[in-house]
Amino acid sequence: MPDELFDLKVGYVSFRNPIALAPMGGMTDSEFANQYAADAGLVILGGYNLDARTREAASQMAARGREEFISEDPLGLIENEVGSIKTGSAVAVNVRSTTIEPLLEAAAIIRDKGAILELDAHCRQKEITDIGAGQALLKDVPGLCEWIRMIKGTGVVLSVKIRGNVVGDTALARSIENAGADILHVDAMKQGAGADLKLIKEIRDSTRMFLICNNSVTNIDNAKEMFARGADMVSVARAVLDEPELISNLVRDISSIQRDMGWYNAPKHVCRGEGDLRGLAFCCLPVKSCPVHSNIKKLGLTPQQFADIKMDFAKGTMLEYGDSTCFGSLVWCCKISKPCFLRDGVLETLGLSDAEYMRLKKGLGDYILEQAGKSASGPKNG
Ligand SMILES: Cc1cc2nc3c(=O)[nH]c(=O)nc-3n(C[C@H](O)[C@H](O)[C@H](O)COP(=O)(O)O)c2cc1C
Ligand code: SF4
Ligand code: SF4
Predict the structure, then answer these.
(1) Which residue's alpha carbon is nearest to atom 4 within ligand 2?
(2) Where do the domains of the chain lie?
(3) What CATH class does 3-261 carry?
(4) Buried b / exposed e across 215-246, counting CB within 10 Å, b at 16+?
(5) Is the pTM of this model over 0.85?
(6) How far does residue 295's CA lie from ligand 2's centre (Å)?
(7) In this structure, what DSSP letter does residue 211 have?
């Protein structure tokens, strides 16, 4: 599969596709990743316990039957494990600590290996939260942000793994982004209800960070629901144990979607409240009373500014054409999955494939968000 099919880059790391193996302490080491995640775009190893207190907590967890990675030399172990990955995918290392020093040491090693450090602000095992690590980091957001700033000082590409619905997630995402993290890995768990798709959309609309979404993905259909709400990447943990081929199947299916559609994580239309703000790329000229107005307001734009931004992007591209469409230009046209003989007739005349049309719409979605960020008032929720 060609690497260029997806254009996914964060700092010095490139991902060949948007499917990741999520970390499971005591299980997801290099051997596991090589066996179950050979086709993944990203494998996340760990979580590793970096200091004496997390090591002690992990020993207590192991004593009650939970598998854990416990080593007197976690940095040596990490270096060796990253070097043992044979999948050709990007690698991240999920780590827990109660103090910053071992995180900085790990960051330097991980950076030199071209990998990603993932800070575990997610683990909710009592032994870990009792000592202020894992999910307990979310209770002190300024402290978490200070750690993020210090870790980023090493130059490592940094992911922060959080559990959703623990604290105010949109404010948390903005704080993590402002502190300098590159990636937000969200376990969108909703107690007793699988993944919280609404939460993913809300987080997407509050940050431009690379977003990895996680929880209860077992097939391409539920992965697609996350992609359509703005996930740049989807990660899987438990389901890999039940279906060892799951990651390969997800990679195959999302690659085929990308080939056919040109925008693997295209949003839904914003009409029914499901589409994130990138979905404004599919919106009509804002002349009628509909949800486009509340959405452009969130971006701090007037209807005229929104129209100008779209027309500005269209200039010189194929989206300029389309006299016979509802609003006289493809720039106002719907997602390719919405059947429309008027738009499709124009695409045929222009010789523009569905994938090329959607790639232009992706560029348009990015452009709208960029321009809104630059506007005087700026995004109202972003
Ligand atoms: C046995 C087990 C161990 C886990 N260990 C970690 C860990 O060390 N660090 C972490 O960030 N998440 C850990 N997780 C959470 C997973 O990465 C993932 O967020 C969670 O299982 C939900 O995804 P899933 O529905 O695909 O399993 C663990 C999950 C399981 C089941
Ligand atoms: S402008 Fe069109 S696509 Fe957008 S919300 Fe209104 S009706 Fe839906
Ligand atoms: S011409 Fe079709 S695709 Fe374009 S705006 Fe009208 S209904 Fe949507």
Answers:
(1) 283
(2) 3-261, 277-374
(3) alpha beta
(4) bbbbebebbbbbbbbbbbbbbbbebbeeeeeb
(5) yes
(6) 10
(7) E
